[in-house]
Every structure is written in structure tokens, then in C-alpha cells.
């Protein structure tokens, strides 16, 4: 076959698109057209019968429109295009992208492809399209009725590929894609617009039902009481430390001085009411009060008791500060002012002291169970037994249970190991960053503490992968405890309402994606930790900026964009909004600076499930006497429990061992968690598997079962993420790789069925 024949054949095979336009003449194009090979003119450009353009739309994802087009008069010249969605011009583009399939067909290095993403379309245009989409009453419409691509300056329309011609598009998911795109663009390009939009009466401050609720930690130490008078001097309150703070850098913000509420005294009821009114105005949904209970002795419970007695219309929960109260403020054993005892009788008395708060209709509950945070759960003598006792006592009072959330303090990150239901972040505990103290040349020489970059913390927290268990995320507006610790304190330098807003916005989105409706809580550290430089309450430098950041971050995109998507909105009518956006100081450039990666992303601790088919890995039953034993599932003993129901947001944490007669269980032999679909005809994947990376030696198993040393590493522990597993009923198995046959694994049942919802 000659080269000419190859080109002609290639064109006949590859270019099967419907002709775009009838023949026409354009003297300028004709004059500029280069010499074209004879084969091409005979198969494509016979101007007496051929169309002027060839091409098609061959991909539509809801986000991206993609296709190709060429001019038969000049294959090397880009073709200009107009793209429409719902009859609205969303973009102008041209065929300037590589399409190797088309270039191969014509045997010329041409660029025939085009692609448009809605993320590159003007916000106002996307909003206008969204309005039109929401007017469509039917659940599905033909793709051809939604999307049109025209040759610029003509009425000639590109056809769809044969695959897309009969495509039906679901309107609700498409509208959601456009709604999300608008939200991302507004947040990243014009993040301050929502603050101004929220000032109008169109929006209520309260969170919508089922949406994210922000709970702020509340320190009740802003009033005198006898113990503080004894330890620190008569009249001591938190304000005593706050006003004596000093700066250690030229731009170090100290002291933090209150604005609207002044140096308040919590003995006044009016102060508490003003705090709640301010919180509600800016979408804070509740307070998490620190609860100071020491072997029957309570301190600073006056605000909590008043909340219950006066039944304030505001949610709350408790965080038990169960460490020693020391003169160093850090719970250390040095110079203890009030000690904690963690013995059985004290733990029972503690939970009974909480019941009067749990019974308040304002107390925050998870599926009806009161939410109790424990600051240092590892200090309990036997956490699992203690929490089990607590649950019995609480359930005897008529509650369906007790939801205990482990505060992620002092390196704690595995709630199930301690019998807890969830964990709650508590920054700066657990944040990842390097101290930057040495980088500050103008630092006061007496400073011996540490300085961190706040924006680096924001970036690392946004990059943090989802936990493998139920986790309530937390953001802090700032942190600087030099007012308490002087030159030995810790400073997170560069904190700003803009950076805090970016952090909290991410946490709200994370809560919507990972937590069930009614349980979407995010925490803020803190409402009024003035001596640690962490407060939402207005100060003399930032005013209401921290609170405004909370309201913007929690506002659902569709709500914040109501003014843009109102019926009858037009691009011309948005001119005033555009001018407003351009005047705001909180610009996209600031966000980019905040989120600019410096140190790479964090790796996930959890294994991920993947669908496994027989052509990838053949899974066969194990020997007759094989057995997989699960010691604990999500921290709970699974003895004689054949069934467990889990929410996919929880994740799956297993510890156990496996017995496989005739199979060596060396530490290097791959093990997998296998979930086998009980009802294989229900459309779910037949089997999903996740790698087990953590192996454990189990001499106890080897000895009790009389096994040889090859079974020593039969133990395992694994943390998995269930979000990729469809809801359904699955048999839990442990799969052992067959080293003699790399395409095969041996499945050993664990006699447990999992119901995932």
C-alpha cells in the first residue's frame, strides 16, 4: 500500500463524524490554504461534495466538554468555536489541542482537539446556566438539547459522536456540579463576597437543618472564686494574665485586648447572654464547656449551671478536663494545685455528676446519646471498662447510649483502642509543622519558646487525609500563650481571619462529605481562650473579623450565592456585585499564598478498599481447618458476635490473628482484609480487598494451638477506610497471598458479617 493509500484509508476508518456544513467558498481561506496531499483532497476535501468542516463532540462529563474539528480547506488552521449550555454562550475556544487519533488519520502534525471546563467559565455565566438548569422540570433530557458547539461566526453546529447522540443527562447531578463549581470559584477567587452578602436580611444566621454546626470551646475562668484567690492572689481571673502580655517580635500582636464585651465578669448573667447572642449572630451553634471535676470537687461550673437553669436557647456539651490542675497550666505532676484520681468509684461519681447536664434539651446528642469529650482519656485507669460503666449508668437513665469522643491530645489518635466512639481534634495538639524560631532575626533574646508558621498549619490540615474512624475536625483562629508562659510560650505567627476562614471552610466541606446528617459538627478552639491568644470574641485589632470568617465558612454555597442565582439575574445586573468584590481586601491572592504547598502532602494511615475480580486475583477457599479470629472490631470485643452494623463514615479497625494449616505465615507474606458480597446479584462488587500492613507476633496463639514457629506472625492489625465500599452486607475474610501462585490468594472466613450503611 502506498503512502497515499494509507492516508486515504486512515481517513475512511477514523473520521466517521457527520458532516458539519455544506460546501461553501471563502476566497481568503482558499488563498491561504496550503497544498494538501491528493489523498486528503480525494477523501475529505472534494469541494464539490465535501463539507467545509468535519468534527464532533465526543466527551461530556458535566464538568468538561471535549471534541475535535478540522477545516477541510486548511487542516493546519485552528477552527474557532462557540460553546453553549442551555442556550447560553459559556465560552469561546478553538481547536488547538493535540488529538493523536486525528493527526494519525490525516498523517499530518495537526492540532484538532478542543476542551472547555466549567471551572474556567466566568462565575456569573455558570450561575446563569444554573438558573436555567433549575427551570427544567423533567429528571432527564437529551444531551443534544443541553449542549451546542457552533463554528464561530456561522450557524453550523458540530454533531455528537455516535456514542453521545442518544445520551440522556440527569439534571439534578448536573445542577449540583454547577453549584459546586460556583462555590469553589467564589471561595477561591472572591472569598470575601459572602461576608457582604450575609449582611443582608436574606440569610438567617442559624445553620440549616442537617448542615454543619460549629461548636466553640468555652473557658469559664473569667470570674473570681476562692481557689484562684488562694493560688494566684485575691481577685485573680484569666484577665490578669492577658493584660500583662508583651510582644517579643516587632509585629507580634500582644496583648490581646477585648473590644465589644470588655473585661467581663461571668458572675453577671448579662455577659453570658451577650456571648450567646453574638455567637448565634455569626453562626456558632453551641459551646463546649470545659468541665472541671476533681474527685467530687467542681470548679467554675457557674456558667454551665446557669445555661441549664435559665434554659438558654443555645446548644452545649461538656469536655472533661481530667488532668491535674498544676501551676504550670499543663496538667503536669509538678506543683499540683488540684489532683485528679482515676479510680472506679470516682469515675462513677463523675458520670453521675454529668446527668443533670445530659438531661437538658439543649445538650448536644449523637443519635440521642449525649456527647461527652474526655481531654486525656489515656489517664483513666482502664478506659474501656470505665466507659462501659458510664454507658450502663447513662442508659439506665433512659438514654440510648453515651457517645464518648476522645480529644486528640498528647499524641492520642486511636479512639477505638480506648473504648471511645469518635475523636475530636484539638489544635495545636496534633498539628504538623516545623518550628521557625531561628528564622526571626528580630526576636527578643529573652524568648526561649517556639514560633510556628500559622499558614503552614492551615496548609497541612487541609492536606490531612480523612481519618479511618468518626472524627470531629477542629480549627483554631490563632494561638499565642505567651501571656501565660511569658518568654517560654508558643506562638503561631501569621494568623489571620482569612487563613482561618480557609481552614474552617475545608473542615465544613469535610464534615458534609464524611459525617452523617445530624452529626456534622466542627469545633473551634476557642471562643474565649484569651490567655492563649485563641478567641472568636471581638478584640481591638480584628473586631468581628474572626466571627465573620466563621459565618462565611459555614454558609452553604447555594445560600451564599442566592443573590447571584435569583430569578431574573443577568450578567449586567451583577456589575455592582463585581465592583464590591474588587474592593474587598480578602482576595484570591491571599488564599493562594495561604494554601501554597511547602512540604508535601501527608500520607493516609488507613488502607483503602479496591474491587478485586477473578482476572486480577483468584481468591479460593482456605484449608478445612483454617480460621480467622477477630479480637476486636473498632475497639469492641467481638467474642461470639457474628454480626456488626457500621456506618461507612466510621471506617473499620481490626485486630486479630489467622490460622492457615500448611501455609507459612512469615511476616513478609501479604495479608488482606476481604469483604465478600453476600448477595452477589445485587449489583455490588463481588469482593473488595484492602492490604494489611501491620503484622504482629502472637506467641500466645502459637502456644495455645500447638502451632510451629512458622505461624508466629499470624497476628495483624489494620485500619481501613470504608468510603469506597458500597452499602450492603458482606462476609468478613482474611486473605493470605499464595507465594507459590502470585495470581491466587486463600480466603479464610472470620465468621462475621458486616452490614454497611
Account of the protein in words:
With 757 residues, the protein is α/β, with parallel strands linked by helices. The strands form nine sheets. Strands 9, 10, 11, 12, 15, 16, 17, 18, 20, 21 and 23 form an eleven-stranded mixed β-sheet that branches. Strands 27, 28, 31, 33, 34, 37 and 38 form a seven-stranded mixed β-sheet that branches. Strands 26, 29, 30, 32, 35 and 36 form a six-stranded mixed β-sheet that branches. A hairpin with a 2-residue loop joins strand 15 and strand 16. The longest helix is centred in the N-terminal third of the chain and has 19 residues, at 171-189. It starts with a helix and ends with a strand. Mean pLDDT is 80; it is low at 1-49, 185-207, 558-565, 575-592 and 594-604.
Layout of helices and strands, plus pairs?
Layout: H1 3-14, H2 27-32, H3 38-43, E1 53-60, E2 64-71, E3 80-85, E4 88-94, H4 100-106, E5 113-117, H5 123-135, E6 140-142, H6 143-146, E7 147-151, E8 168-170, H7 171-189, H8 193-198, E9 213-218, H9 226-232, H10 238-242, H11 269-281, E10 284-294, E11 297-299, H12 302-309, E12 315-320, E13 325-326, E14 336-338, H13 344-358, E15 365-366, E16 369-374, H14 383-396, E17 403-407, E18 422-424, E19 450-453, H15 454-463, E20 471-472, E21 474-475, H16 482-485, E22 490-493, H17 497-514, E23 521-524, E24 528-529, E25 534-535, H18 545-554, H19 557-560, H20 562-565, H21 575-583, H22 588-595, E26 607-608, E27 610-611, E28 618-621, E29 627-633, E30 636-637, E31 643-646, E32 652-659, E33 671-677, E34 687-692, E35 694-696, H23 699-705, E36 715-721, E37 728-737, E38 744-756
Parallel strand pairs: 9-10, 9-23, 10-12, 12-16, 16-17, 17-18, 18-20, 19-22, 21-23, 26-36, 28-38, 31-38
Antiparallel strand pairs: 1-2, 2-5, 3-4, 3-7, 6-8, 10-11, 13-14, 15-16, 24-25, 27-34, 29-30, 29-32, 32-36, 33-34, 33-37, 35-36, 37-38
Helix pairs in contact: 1-4, 5-7, 13-14, 15-17, 17-18
Amino acid at each position: 500500500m502506498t503512502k497515499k493509500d494509507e492516508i486515504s484509508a486512515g481517513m475512511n476508518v477514523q473520521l466517521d463524524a457527520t458532516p458539519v456544513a455544506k460546501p461553501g467558498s471563502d476566497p481568503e481561506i482558499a488563498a491561504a490554504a496550503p497544498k494538501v496531499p491528493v489523498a486528503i483532497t480525494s477523501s475529505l476535501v472534494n469541494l464539490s461534495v465535501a463539507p467545509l468542516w468535519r468534527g464532533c463532540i465526543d466527551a461530556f462529563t458535566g464538568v468538561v466538554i471535549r471534541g475535535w474539528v478540522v477545516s477541510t480547506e486548511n487542516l493546519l488552521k485552528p477552527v474557532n468555536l462557540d460553546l453553549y449550555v442551555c442556550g447560553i454562550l459559556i465560552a469561546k475556544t478553538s481547536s488547538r489541542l493535540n488529538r493523536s487519533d486525528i493527526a494519525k488519520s490525516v498523517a499530518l502534525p495537526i492540532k484538532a482537539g478542543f476542551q472547555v471546563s466549567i471551572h474556567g467559565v466566568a462565575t456569573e455565566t455558570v450561575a446563569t446556566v444554573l438558573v436555567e438548569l433549575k427551570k427544567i422540570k423533567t429528571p432527564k433530557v437529551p444531551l443534544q438539547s443541553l449542549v451546542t458547539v457552533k463554528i464561530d461566526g456561522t450557524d453550523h453546529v458540530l454533531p455528537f459522536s455516535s456514542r453521545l447522540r442518544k445520551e440522556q443527562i440527569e439534571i439534578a447531578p448536573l445542577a449540583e456540579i454547577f453549584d459546586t463549581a460556583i462555590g469553589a470559584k467564589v471561595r477561591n477567587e472572591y472569598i470575601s463576597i459572602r461576608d457582604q452578602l450575609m449582611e443582608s436580611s436574606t440569610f438567617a444566621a442559624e445553620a440549616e437543618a442537617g448542615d454543619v454546626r460549629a461548636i466553640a470551646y468555652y473557658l469559664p475562668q473569667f470570674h473570681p472564686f476562692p481557689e484562684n484567690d488562694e493560688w494566684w492572689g485575691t481577685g485573680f481571673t484569666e484577665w490578669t494574665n492577658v493584660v500583662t502580655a508583651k510582644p517579643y517580635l516587632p509585629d507580634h500582636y500582644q496583648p490581646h485586648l477585648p473590644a465589644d464585651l470588655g473585661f467581663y465578669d461571668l458572675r453577671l448573667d448579662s455577659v453570658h447572654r451577650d456571648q450567646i447572642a453574638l455567637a448565634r449572630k455569626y453562626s456558632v451553634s453551641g459551646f463546649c464547656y470545659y468541665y472541671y471535676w476533681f474527685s467530687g470537687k467542681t470548679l467554675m461550673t457557674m456558667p454551665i449551671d446557669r445555661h441549664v437553669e435559665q434554659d438558654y436557647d443555645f446548644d452545649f456539651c461538656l469536655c472533661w478536663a481530667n488532668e491535674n490542675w498544676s501551676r504550670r497550666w499543663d496538667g503536669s505532676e509538678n506543683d499540683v494545685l488540684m489532683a485528679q484520681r482515676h479510680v472506679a468509684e470516682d469515675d462513677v461519681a463523675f458520670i453521675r455528676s454529668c446527668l443533670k447536664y445530659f438531661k437538658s434539651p439543649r445538650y448536644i446528642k449523637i443519635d440521642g446519646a449525649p456527647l461527652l469529650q474526655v481531654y486525656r482519656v489515656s489517664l483513666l485507669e482502664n478506659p474501656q471498662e470505665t466507659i462501659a460503666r458510664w454507658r450502663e449508668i447513662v442508659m439506665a437513665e433512659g438514654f440510648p447510649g453515651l457517645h464518648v469522643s476522645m480529644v486528640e491530645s498528647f499524641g492520642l489518635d486511636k479512639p477505638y483502642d480506648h473504648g471511645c466512639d469518635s475523636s475530636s481534634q484539638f489544635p495545636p495538639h496534633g498539628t504538623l509543622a516545623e518550628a521557625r524560631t531561628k528564622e526571626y532575626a528580630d526576636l527578643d533574646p529573652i524568648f526561649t519558646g517556639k514560633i510556628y508558621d500559622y499558614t503552614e498549619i492551615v496548609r497541612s490540615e487541609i492536606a490531612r487525609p480523612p481519618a479511618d474512624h468518626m472524627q470531629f475536625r477542629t480549627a483554631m483562629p490563632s494561638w499565642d500563650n505567651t501571656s501565660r508562659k511569658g518568654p517560654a510560650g508558643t506562638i503561631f505567627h501569621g494568623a489571620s481571619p482569612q487563613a482561618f476562614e480557609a481552614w474552617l471552610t475545608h473542615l465544613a466541606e469535610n464534615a458534609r462529605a464524611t459525617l452523617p446528617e445530624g452529626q456534622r459538627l466542627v469545633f473551634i478552639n476557642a471562643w474565649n481562650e484569651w490567655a492563649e491568644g485563641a478567641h472568636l470574641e471581638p478584640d481591638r485589632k480584628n473586631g468581628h473579623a474572626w466571627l465573620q470568617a466563621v459565618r462565611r465558612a459555614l454558609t452553604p454555597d447555594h445560600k451564599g450565592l442566592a443573590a447571584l442565582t435569583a430569578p431574573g439575574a443577568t450578567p449586567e445586573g451583577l456589575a455592582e456585585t463585581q465592583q464590591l468584590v474588587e474592593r474587598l481586601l480578602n482576595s484570591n491572592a491571599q488564599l493562594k499564598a495561604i494554601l501554597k504547598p511547602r512540604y508535601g502532602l501527608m500520607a493516609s494511615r488507613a488502607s483503602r478498599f479496591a474491587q478485586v475480580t477473578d482476572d486480577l486475583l483468584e481468591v479460593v477457599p482456605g484449608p478445612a481447618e483454617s480460621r480467622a479470629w477477630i479480637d476486636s472490631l473498632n475497639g469492641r470485643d467481638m467474642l461470639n458476635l457474628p454480626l456488626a452494623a457500621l456506618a461507612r463514615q466510621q471506617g473499620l479497625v481490626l485486630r486479630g490473628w489467622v490460622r492457615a494449616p500448611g501455609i507459612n505465615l512469615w511476616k513478609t507474606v501479604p495479608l488482606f482484609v476481604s469483604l465478600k458480597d453476600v448477595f452477589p446479584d445485587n449489583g455490588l462488587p463481588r469482593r473488595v480487598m484492602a492490604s494489611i500492613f501491620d503484622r504482629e507476633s502472637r506467641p500466645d496463639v502459637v502456644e495455645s494451638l500447638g502451632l510451629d514457629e512458622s505461624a508466629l506472625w499470624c497476628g495483624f492489625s489494620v485500619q481501613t477506610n470504608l468510603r469506597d465500599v458500597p452499602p450492603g452486607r458482606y462476609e468478613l475474610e482474611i486473605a493470605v497471598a499464595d507465594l507459590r501462585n502470585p495470581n491466587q490468594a486463600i480466603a479464610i472466613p472470620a465468621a462475621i458479617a458486616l452490614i454497611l450503611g
